[in-house]
Amino acid sequence: MLSPSYRSQKIKEMGLTEDEWYMKQFEIKGEIPDRLETEWASPLVIRQVAPRDWPPRGWEVDREELEFIREGHKLQGVRVNLEDLENGVGVDEENMCLERYKVFLKQYEEWVEANKDRLEEESYEEDQNYYPGRRKRGKDYKEGMYELPFYYPGQICEGKVTTLHLHQGAFVDVGGVHDGWVPIKRNDWFWIRHHIKVGMHVIVEILAKRDPYRFRFPLEMRFVYPNIDHLIFNRFEFPPVFHRDEDTNLDELRRDCGRPPVPRRDPEDKPEEEPLLSNHPYVDKLWQIHVAEQTILDDWEANPEKYKGKKISELTDNEDFDEENSIEYTEAYHKKTVLPKVILKTSVKELDLEAALAEREFHNKLRMEAKERGEKYKITKLRRNIEMDEYDLLHWRRSFEEREALIRDISCRRALGLPLEEPGRYKPASFFGKDQYDPENPLYRYDYWGEPKNSEKSKQERITEIHNKSIVGKGNVWYEMSYEDAIAQRMQMEARAKEREARSGRRSRQRS
C-alpha cells in the first residue's frame, strides 16, 4: 500500500478488483461479538407530559392554562403495579393528560413562531460553522423541528444515529434543531462500534438539557435500545463548554458550568479576627486637595500683589489638566542623596478655595482676638481634617457591620452543619505534596544556582544534620526519654566536660 505499483501488484496476486480490494482493507479484523439483545425487565413507559421548566425565561403565558398544564405533573407520582400491567393493557383516556399536552403544544408553537428568527440569528453569531450537536440552520433547518424548550430530562425519544466521533461520542437526530449527544470516547469504541452504526434507528433517553450558548452539546442522552451502558468505561468528567473572550473570572465560569473549583492552598486566615479597617480610600485624595488649598492660600497671603484685582474663585489652571498623567515619578537630591520623588498634580476645579479662604480668615480673626487677650490660639482641626475623620469613621462602621454579618453567617452555617467555604476550594498544604512551583520562591528563578554553602540557612542545616547523626547512634536515647530531654542531657554533659577541663587547668597551674 506504500506505492501504486505495489498496490496493483497485490490486487493481481489476490485476483480481486480494486473496489473489492479496498473493501477488504477496511474489513473489521479480530473477534466480532454477537448482536446485542436488549432485554426488558418491565414495559418501557412513554408519556406525553409538558416539561417542568415551561415556559422559557422571559416568555409570559396565560396563568390559568399554565396551572392546567402543571396539574399533569401530579399524576406522575401515581404508582403502577407491575402485576396489573402484565395481566392486561388498560386504556384510560381520561387520565392520559392529552388535553393538557395539547394546551402545551399550542403555547409552544406560539413561542416558536415568535423566537425562531431570533434563535437563528444568534446561532450565526455564536457558531461560525455548523458541527454535530449545534443548532441546524439554513438548508439543514426544516419546518416542524423541535426547539430546546420542547425537551426535558427523562424524556424517551426515537431517533437515528447521524454521526460517530472517536473523542466525543455518537450524535442522534431526534427531530429537533439540536442533535442529541451520547458521550463515548477512546477505547470504549472497540466494542461499541459493532453495536452502534451510522443510520441505525435507536431509542434514547434525555439525561440533561443545558444552555446552548455555554455548553457545546445542549442535549445529553443515553442509548436505551440498544442498551450499551455496560460497555462504557471512559466517561466524561464534565460536559464540554465554550470559553468566551468575556470569561475573565474562571471561578465564576466553573460555577456557571457546575464544575468544582480548582483547589488552592488554604491561606489559613480568619477574616472575623482581623482588625477593622478605618482608612477610607478617598482620604488620600482629600489630603491632596487639602494640601493644594493651603498651599494656594499661603501664596495668596504672601504675594498679595500677584493676585491683585482677582477673586480667588476666578483662579484657573495654568495648563490643561490631564487626569491620566496627574502623577509623575522623578528623583531629587537630599543632602547628596538621590531619593524618589512623586509629584501629584491637582486641578483648581477640584478645590473649594472660597470655603478654605473663609475658614482661614475666621481663624486669623480668632488668633488676633486671642493675641489681644494675651492668649495663645491653637487650631485643633481644619474643615478638611474633620471631613477625613468622617470618611474614616464611615469606613470603620462599614467594616464593623461587615464583620458582624460575617460572624452571623459563620454562626448560622455551623449551627446548620454547612461548610464555611466553598467545598473543594481550599486544600491543606499536604494535598499539594512537596516541591510545588512557587513564583515567589527564589528556588524557581531562572538564574538560581542554589543556596550558598556559607549562608546562615545552610549552616543551620549542617548543624542540624550533624546533631541528628550523633543522636541516631545512641538508639537507647529514643526509647528512654523524649527528644527535648535528650538535648538537655547532652547540654549538661557538655557543661560538665568544660568544668572538668577548667579544674584540671587550675590544678596544673597550682602545681607549677
From TrEMBL:
GO terms for molecular function: RNA binding. InterPro entries: NA-bd_OB-fold, PTAC10, S1_domain. GO terms for cellular component: chloroplast; plastid-encoded plastid RNA polymerase complex. Residues 252-268, 493-504 have a biased composition (Basic and acidic residues). Residues 154-222 form the S1 motif domain. It comes from the Eukaryota. Coiled coil: none annotated. Residues 252-277, 492-512 are annotated as: Disordered. This is PROTEIN PLASTID TRANSCRIPTIONALLY ACTIVE 10. It comes from Salix koriyanagi.
